[in-house]
Amino acid sequence: MYALRMTSNDMDAADITQDTFIKLHAHLVRGNTIVDPLPFCLMIARQRVINLWRDAKDTVELDELHLVSDPYIDIARADIREHVGTAVSKLPLLLRDAFILRYYDGLPYDTIATMISENPGTVRMRVQRAKAILRRQLVYLVQETR
After folding, report:
1. pLDDT along the chain (146 residues), means of 10
2. Separation of alpha carbons 45 and 140, rounded Å
3. Which residue of 11, 38, 59, 84 lies most exposed, with the fewest beta carbons within 10 A?
4. DSSP states of 39-70
């Protein structure tokens, strides 16, 4: 699920997942041990996502001012989960990475910090910034449900 949430593309996510398990298998075949498999696999998948983003061709990203949409029509057609998933997929890469590892994969800040070679304060800051952006982008959902 991490790869799918980070890439928003089924094919890329499948490739990343397959590569992760191949690298995991190769690691074990070499006689290495793994204390906690989830962070180990997420670390491999995360590196593959970063490589995918690095190698991707430049694309133009539009900010909110250039987008025209009526959020109330979207609410009538889809459920809240879809809106949240879309908002999460639009977060900047580093913020999305920290947010997904924390809230979708349930990893503690210290584990995430170790995985991405940052300090826990940096991870907390990224998660807080991601949450602030999501609050601003999804405020219409709260107003609609009241």
Report:
1. 86 92 93 90 90 74 61 60 86 93 92 93 96 90 62
2. 33
3. 59
4. HHHHHHHHHHHHHHHHHSPP-PPP-GGG----
- What does the DSSP assignment read for 2-14? HHHHHH--HHHHH
pTM: 0.62
Helix, strand or coil, per DSSP, at residue 63:
coil
Secondary structure letter of residue 36 according to DSSP: -
Instruction: For 102, list phi and psi in degrees, rounded to 5.
Output: -80, -50
Is-contact 90 100, C-beta < 8 A? no
Q: 119: Cβ–Cβ under 8 A, 6 or more apart, which residues?
A: 113
> Where in the chain are the domains?
1-59, 61-146
What is the CATH code for 61-146? 1.10.10.10
